[in-house]
Amino acid sequence: MLAFGSPGSNNALTSSTCHTLLRELQQIWTDIGESEADRDRMLLELERECMEVYRRKVEEAANAKSRLHQSVAAKEAELATLMAALGEHTINSPIQPEKKSASLKKQLGLIMPLVDDLKAKKDERVKQFADIKAQIEKISGEISGSCNIINSLSTLNLEEHDLSTRKLSECQSHLRALQKEKSVRIQRVLDSVNEVHTMCGILGLDFAETVNNVHPSLHETSLAQYTNISDSTLEGLDQAILKLETERKVRYQKLKDVAGSLFGLWNLMDTTREERRKLSRIISVLDTSESKVVEPGALTLEVIQQVSAEVERLTKLKASRMKELVMKRRAELEDLCYKTHIQPDSSTAADKSSAMIDSGLVDPCELLANIEAQINKAKDEALSRKEIMDKIERWLSACDDENWLEDYNLDHTRYSGGRGAHINLKRAERARITVTKIPGMVDSLINRTLAWEDENQKLFLYDGVRLVSILEDYKVSRHQKEEEKKRARDQKKLQDMLLAEKESIYGSRPSPRRSNSFRKTNGYHANGNGSVTPSPRRNSVGCATPELQTPRSYAGRQNTYFKEMRRLSTAPLNFVAIAKEDTMSFSSIGGSEPESPPQG
User: Fold this and answer.
1) Contact 107, 99 (CB under 8 A)
2) Which of 89, 142, 270, 563 counts the most CB atoms within 10 A of its CB?
3) E strands in 17-68
4) Which spans does this entry mark as compositional bias, Low complexity (predicted)?
């Protein structure tokens, strides 16, 4: 029986199709009525035709395979030749590992790109060798000092069978060594020439003459001029630079010494900015180190002579102004101590200093140096006191707010609708909040001051008075004031109780006429809105309100730096005004004329 499909084929779909066609053919033969012999004959013919088709296809495939074998072999040979020429023996053919399993087309597809890459690499390698050898010959001629550079491209004998990377690396290493040597030499020559040019400009020397002594080609400006980079040229430049650097150090030190004296005289005699500007270039030169001076003409002999002449002139002028300078620095010291509330050293007071200078008992320079040391000491102490001084300013500001608030509470028109009334109301609210913080401020200031005293092992003086003592006195006086206010409030409550008892007995209030008379006899004045304000002529509680001492009030008594005394409160206390009440003494209440009892 004829079997359709490829030999050994496992394709189920193809086998099924062949069987279907065979059954269809047998069915047609049955319908036609073909005999078994005819059927066998036609099946044999069909099988022979299929075999012919298979045989023809096999021959065509064998020829294609042979051609592919030849192509693969040729490419492998070409690949081996290129690999040997380029010296890449480490590259293995990609066909060998897959020769048993890969098809010929796949093998050819793998080797073709590699062959093409090696061809391109070979062409590039040839160009690299030609370029490297040309550069080697050129640089060798320059380093040897020869000016005749031969075009060596025509004399290169490139052996294409030796294009390996090893050979290329050797040529490249040789070229890099020559390039490095040339670059180093050229850079040394350029740096040295530039250094010589800069140094000559600074010192005011002739550059052309200096480099001519080394080699005539070093100062030529023509681009075609060949610059010598030999060892003798480099050594000559080094010697010239060393000589110029030595001269620069000598002149710089000399100028520094002279300018140091000049700056001291300027500061001592308060030379104006306009006069200093005449030598501003010298000042800018000395702001930098000796090795960084690059300004042309900065260290010429003329500049040094000019500065020396100015120092000599100011030295002669200094002798006649020493007393004036001492007095001025002492005034600066006193001003600094005044601003920082520090007691200045009395040993250098203006009158004493003047007397000592006039009598010749002390050198004015030594006295001036002593005052300078005192100024520096005062500055250092002011810096360490800064935190405490800031706290003092905040405390004094709070005391100012408290004084303002008390004056504000005494103003009977504070609730009127005049201009600025709402601003005062807001300020009063802020002041009340600030006043509540004063005790905490004082305690914090005392603790910080004590810590400062422990740290510095000395007392913290504020205008000559110990700050802790001032704060303790302030706390005591503030406590006394609070006690006075409390007694005043208690007396007011007792007066209110007596007045209420009187009204309950007699059944009516005093008439406005009699109320006014009571107020007048007791020293109070009614304001426009029915409240009463204590009269400044009489203290309602019978004793003066204690004065709250602050550093400023202490300063007013201790020294002349402060012109005014500050107190937290100097006005009489203000009582809460009630429309129906009268402030009167016990005797006035007891001696008043009773009203008629109320009618039932």
Assistant:
1) yes
2) 142
3) none
4) 508-519
- Quick one: which H or E segment has residue 444? helix 438-456
- What is the spatial distance between Cα 379 and Cα 373, in angstroms, rounded to a whole number? 10
426, two tokens: 């807001």
> Tokens in use for 151?
């075009």
Phi, psi angle pair for 462, to nearest 5°: -120, 105
| pLDDT computed for residue 86 by the predictor | 75
Residues near 484 by beta carbon (within 8 Å), at least 6 away in sequence: 541, 543, 545, 546, 573
3-class SS of residue 473: helix
Inter-CA distances, 417 with 317, 337, 414, 421, 532, Å = 70, 47, 8, 6, 19
Q: What six digits make up the tokens of 520?
A: 């007048």
Question: How many residues are given for the chain?
Answer: 600
Q: Which amino acid is at 142?
A: E
Side chain identity at residue 164, one-letter code? S
Contact 64, 105 (CB under 8 A): no
DSSP state of 363: -
Nearest to 390 by CA among 448, 464, 454, 455: 448
Query: How many CA atoms within 13 Å lie on the side-chain side of 21?
Result: 11
Q: What is the largest CA-CA distance in the chain?
A: 169
Angle at 178 between CA 173 and CA 180, to 5 degrees: 95
> What are residue 534's DSSP bridge partners?
524
Residues 6+ apart with CB under 8 A from 123: none
Give the DSSP letter of residue 216.
G
| 534: three-class secondary structure by DSSP | strand
Would you call 525 helix, strand, or coil by DSSP? strand
Judge whether 171 and 161 are in contact, CB under 8 Å: no
Cα–Cα distance for residue pair 437/448, rounded to 1 Å = 16
* pLDDT score for 318: 77
In the DSSP assignment, the letter for residue 562 is -
Per-residue pLDDT of 199-249, as tens digits, reads: 899 888 888 888 888 877 777 654 445 567 777 888 888 999 999 999 999
Neighbours of 210 (CB within 10 A): 21
Can you tell me whether residue 462 is helix, strand or coil?
Answer: strand
**Helix and strand tally (H, E) in the chain?**
18, 4
Rounded CA separation 189/235 (Å): 10
What's the CA gap between 191 and 530, in Å, rounded? 98
- Which residue ranges of the chain lie beneath pLDDT 50? 1-10, 100, 149-159, 222-224, 511-546, 555-600
Give the residues across from 524 on adjacent strands.
534
- Report CA-CA distances (Å) from 14 to 5, 45, 448, 474: 6, 21, 105, 118
3 state SS of 287? coil
Instruction: Read off the tokens for 280.
Output: 């501003």
**H helix or E strand, kind and range, residue 391:** helix 364-409
Nearest Cα residue to 524 out of 568, 578, 570: 578
Quote the pTM value.
Answer: 0.42
Give the C-alpha distances (Å, rounded to integers) separating 591 from 369, 518, 521, 586, 587: 79, 11, 13, 9, 6
